[in-house]
Amino acid sequence: MLIASVMRSALIPTTSTRAQNPAVAAQRTKEILRYPACVHCPEPSLTLKACSLHVRGIVALEATISERGRVEQIAVLKALDYGLTERAIKAVGRWRISPAIGIDGKPRAFRISIMVTFGFGNLTGGIATG
After folding, report:
1. How far is CA 119 from CA 2, 44, 49, 56, 101, in A?
2. How far apart are CA 29 and CA 89, in angstroms?
3. What is the largest CA-CA distance in the chain?
4. What are the residue boundaries of the structural domains of the chain, listed by start?
5. What is the pLDDT of residues 6-65, one digit of tens each?
6. String of b and e for 53-73 (b: at least 16 CB within 10 Å)?
7. Contact criterion met (CB below 8 Å) for 99 and 65
8. In the prediction, which pLDDT does 108 show?
9. Phi and psi (nearest 5°) for 93?
């Protein structure tokens, strides 16, 4: 079975105006002591059709990491065909993330961007970018 490449790097806030005002996002960033980090992030597998066609590409998602580390409110920013978007959403929905910790020491919900790269060999991908 071929597995999508997903790089587990830093999770940082999204600056999408669809999710929130960028000024609010910047302010919330200053209020965070520790950013979310991947605890258990299984990688999605390729569909048979995508595998046979050697499909490569990125599914871009936005999601909220709850105070309990659950991935919620997943939105698709960039999709792929052949069932890969659905595979990415399903996998990301199973992820467990350590929540953001505010400067007050309490967990906080946090909006992030997630990039899931499907490919072969040494193609890389990324979790979370701005």
Report:
1. 9, 11, 13, 5, 33
2. 25
3. 51
4. 22-118
5. 443 334 455 444 545 544 454 466 788 888 888 998 888 888 898 888 888 889 999 999
6. eebbbbbbbbbbbbeebbbee
7. yes
8. 92
9. -65, -20
* Phi, psi of 77, rounded to the nearest 5 degrees: -100, -35
Q: Is 3.30.2420.10 the CATH number for 22-118?
A: yes
Of the candidates 106, 38, 46, the residue with the CA atom closest to the CA atom of residue 80: 46
- Tell me the per-residue pLDDT of 59-110, one tens digit each, with 9 for 90 and over: 999 999 999 999 999 999 999 999 999 999 999 999 999 999 999 999 999 9
3-state SS assignment for residue 52: helix
pTM: 0.73
Give strand pairing partners of 76.
61
Question: How many CB atoms are closer than 10 A to CB 20?
Answer: 14
Cβ neighbours around 23 below 10 Å, total: 8
